[in-house]
């Protein structure tokens, strides 16, 4: 167990559950909890190494991908807040 080692090989064993394999998966349609929002559905195409164990689902992000995922989730979060605000009765 060397969690500090930079992962390089595809299909490496997942560090979290130690049984699944890390495989590239498209994040589109995947649901995320981000900040105070739950179940934000990713709506862009982005390949990220993901644990193939359904019970785990660990994502391997880093650098550019983290920034990209954060940007999309932030956009989805703001869109949801705006929608929610629009649904509220006015003062
Ligand atoms: Zn895993």
Task: Summarize the model shown.
With 91 residues, the chain is α+β, with helices and mostly antiparallel strands. It contains 1 helix and 5 strands.
Describe the structure.
The chain has 91 residues and is α+β, with helices and mostly antiparallel strands. The protein has one domain (12-83): Ubiquitin-like (UB roll). It is built from one helix and five strands. The chain has a three-stranded antiparallel beta sheet, with no helix packed on it. The chain is elongated and about 55 Å long. The protein starts with 21 loop residues before the first strand and ends with a helix. Zinc ion binds at residues 14, 16-17, 20, 51, 53, 56, 58.
* Strand portion: 15-25%
CATH topology: Ubiquitin-like (UB roll)
The ligands found in this model are:
zinc ion
Query: For the report, how would you describe the main beta sheet?
Result: 3 strands, antiparallel
Helix-strand string: EEEEEH
CATH top level class name: Alpha Beta
How are the SSEs ordered, and which strands pair?
Layout: E1 22-26, E2 31-34, E3 37-41, E4 47-51, E5 59-60, H1 64-87
Antiparallel strand pairs: 1-4, 2-3, 4-5
Offer a few descriptive terms:
3-stranded antiparallel sheet; 26% helix; 91 residues; elongated; binds zinc ion; Ubiquitin-like (UB roll); alpha+beta; two-stranded antiparallel sheet
């Amino acid at each position: 167990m060397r969690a500090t080692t930079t992962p390089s090989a595809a299909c490496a064993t997942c560090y979290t559950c130690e049984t699944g394999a890390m495989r590239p998966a498209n994040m589109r349609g995947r649901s995320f909890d981000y900040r105070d929002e739950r179940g934000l559905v990713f709506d862009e195409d982005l390949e990220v190494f993901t644990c193939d164990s359904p019970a785990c689902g660990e994502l391997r992000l880093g650098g550019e991908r983290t920034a990209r995922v954060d940007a999309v989730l932030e956009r989805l979060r703001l869109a949801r807040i705006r929608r929610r605000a629009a649904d509220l009765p006015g003062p």
